[in-house]
Amino acid sequence: MSDDAILILGDEQYRFPVREGTEGERAIDIQDLRARTGYVTLDPGYANTGSCRSAITFIDGEQGILRYRGIPIEQFEREPNFVEAAWLLIFGHLPNPEEYKTFSENLTACANLDESMKHHFEGFPRSAPPMAILSAMINALSCFHPEYFELEDKDHFRCAAAGLISKIRTIAAYAYRHSIGQPYIYPNPALRYVPNFLHMMFSQPYAEHECDPIVRDAINLVLLLHADHEQNCSTSTVRMVGSSQANLFASCAAGVCALWGPLHGGANVAVLQMLEQIHQGRISPEEYVRLAKDRDSKVRLMGFGHRVYKNFDPRARMLGKVAERLLPTLGVRDPLLDIARRLEEIALEDPYFVDRQLYPNVDFYSGIIMRAVGIPTNMFTVMFAIGRLPGWIAHWWEQSQTQGSKIARPRQLYVGPGFTDHVPKDERM
Ligand code: CMC
């Protein structure tokens, strides 16, 4: 009782219970606010709104902490394994050897697309943005797999999840092959998740792509670090669409669309464009930072800042280290890495960024890594989507299993015209 929050509205006092999360986070439970007071809350951008209880990912933005199911993200660095992290996020614990083996086999078994899906790819212009293709094709998957419309139990859900996690990489690779006018390469059942993806991206009918273990580990880490980030824009979208009981595929297709925007997943492309611009000498790093600080310019330092992190994004720290290691090992000398370091240096010493607690985020270095291994820039956000998919699936499932889960339907504060009569067409000025 003493922990209740008290709201005073005129002469009335209302008490609302305070709920506490496992890490001591506190939330005022206002579920019956409108019913009791007639008021709603106003929180554009939902920066102060907890939309659900979730047991998947914990972030402490002030301290730069990110944990999947309680495990600090840094502990995945030594042997990065995206498939293992996907299982962990979705099913709540690290897979035992039997679970891992079965899940890997499911992924292998599901990698092919229905042959007639190829016609869909053909219908897109070569220049189609891969994120548009990805979203459309994930939605199209539901037409080919109506057996997953209604998920009866956990086993059924596991098959749907494995199917989607496996097929997204085939769709992504086919979208790329279509864009460059090259034949689709079928998945190879002998290969693991990441090498199989790179095989479909880069092999030729007459020449097999060989995946360097260093590249395999780097891409595993990139995907793993993107795998979940609690209630971000795309995950909230998946939850919102899923709250209407839309199927898993439709909900995740919507997540891809949300991720596409430059303030979210699309930032990894925008970072590269920014670095290229500086590299081509069109603007200096100092001038770019000056513009990013100028409110009238609309320019932002891409890959900097985060809604939740008010300290270093731990993912950026880890990816920065990977970039430093990977490029020399591959014999890649990328001037964009030097430019990124220079921008970071300038920004971290500038009171504008310091005062606003703007630090590099996950997108700042991921593009440099992907570029070094030959992933083209227009596929960067697709890579983010492949990585984020387990998170979307985990949240969709968590929500669907939550007793009393409701359709997501926020309120608003109406600020439009008052009662206005309709004017017949011929009487209008
Ligand atoms: N460059 C310059 N100024 C910035 C930046 C930036 N990157 N980010 C925030 N600010 C300023 C902003 O102008 C505002 O200043 P003021 O207080 O004077 O009005 C202040 O910092 C707070 O910014 P905000 O836009 O209110 O913060 P937000 O929490 O709504 O936005 C963000 C978070 C990530 C959208 C924003 O920082 C941003 O646009 N960053 C660049 C895009 C980017 O890198 N996005 C990837 C995010 S991480 C991956 C993901 O989760 O998708």
From TrEMBL:
- Swiss-Prot/TrEMBL GO biological process terms: tricarboxylic acid cycle
Q: Which GO terms describe its molecular function?
A: citrate synthase activity
Q: Which reaction does it catalyse?
A: oxaloacetate + acetyl-CoA + H2O = citrate + CoA + H(+)
Which of UniProt's keywords are assigned here? Answer: Transferase, Tricarboxylic acid cycle
Quote the PROSITE patterns the UniProt record gives.
CITRATE_SYNTHASE (PS00480)
Top-level taxonomic group: Bacteria
Give the record's GO CC terms: cytoplasm
> Pfam families, from UniProt?
Citrate_synt
Which residues are responsible for catalysis? H306, D363
Name the CDD domains on file.
Answer: EcCS_like
Q: In which pathway does it act?
A: Carbohydrate metabolism; tricarboxylic acid cycle; isocitrate from oxaloacetate: step 1/2
- Can you tell me which family this protein belongs to? Belongs to the citrate synthase family.
Q: Would you tell me the protein name for this molecule?
A: Citrate synthase
Q: Organism, per UniProt? A: Imhoffiella purpurea
